[in-house]
Amino acid sequence: MHWTIAKKEFLSNLLNFRFVAGFILCFLLAALSAWIVTADYAERIADYSDVVKKHKEQLENAKVYSEVQVTLDKCPQPLSLFCEGVEKQLGNTLTVSHGETPNISANTGSGNPLLAGFPSLDLSLVVQVVFSLLALLFVYDSISGEREHGTLSLVLANAVPRHHVLLGKYLGIFLSLFVPILASILAVIAIIILSPSVNFSYSDWIRLGLISFVSLLYISTFCNMGFFVS
Q1: CB 3.0–4.6 Å: which of 12, 37, 104, 229 could bond 91 by disulfide?
Q2: Mean pLDDT, 10 residues at a time, over the chain (230 residues)?
Q3: pLDDT digits over 127-161, tens only?
């Protein structure tokens, strides 16, 4: 019985204006974030290559032992395309030289310093803000709305257990949210992997799968919060 309720909820959401608006908004924001972070990642990769070449030339030009200065540079991580975290704030260069304590250089940043206080527009931000609000928008009136329209009493008049009603509604709404979320994630992955500067390893794909799974759990938490309010 709960699958019948889930199918009804899913189809009614597909024909709703908020589904169309939410789908377009999520897809466009996810694609825009992927384009921005991919361009930024390509720039960071180019800067990394230039710095590595520069440090290699400095090491080759050292004539005596006291002039030897070994510099280790950290390559930007591909998964920072999905969640930047604090990678830009941490230092990416470790310098080891004769008679000095090894130190990690800190990134000073560039551009407008006022923008440093705002989070980066990556996939994690879209999930945290847009997808979570979309989940609340879908579920906030799932129970109270049917009660106001009188359809909830008709459903319960068929001797349907209440937990079947809740489970069916939850599955229907979650499947409705899964469509724009899946389309947005696939759009992000397609834009990123088409960039020549991005190269994912097998372990990166596994971590990306875990990121997607945790994102679905995060959205599911907001669905349950919306059910509680409704």
Answers
A1: 104
A2: 75 81 86 86 86 81 71 81 74 71 56 53 81 83 76 72 79 84 87 86 87 86 82
A3: 888 888 888 888 877 777 777 777 777 777 777 77
Q: Which residue, among 126, 142, 138, has the nearest Cα to 215 in the 3D structure? A: 126
Both tokens of 50, joined, read 């230039």
For residue 67, give the DSSP letter.
Answer: G
Q: Which token pair is 113?
A: 């310093």
Please say whether the beta carbons of 227 and 139 come within 8 A: yes
- DSSP class of residue 197 equals T
Nearest to 188 by CA among 22, 31, 23: 31
- What are the distances in angstroms from CA 84 to CA 19, 35, 102, 121, 216? 29, 14, 26, 9, 19
Which residue, 65, 58, 50, is CA-closest to 95? 58
Q: Cα(210)–Cα(216) distance, rounded to whole angstroms?
A: 10
HSE-CB of 179 using CA atoms within 13 angstroms: 17
Rounded Cα gap, residues 132 and 12, in angstroms: 20
**Using CA atoms in the order 84, 88, 90, 91, what is the torsion angle rounded to 10 degrees?**
140
Grouping H, G, I as helix, E, B as strand and the rest as coil, residue 98 is coil
Backbone angles phi, psi at 73, to 5 degrees: -115, 135
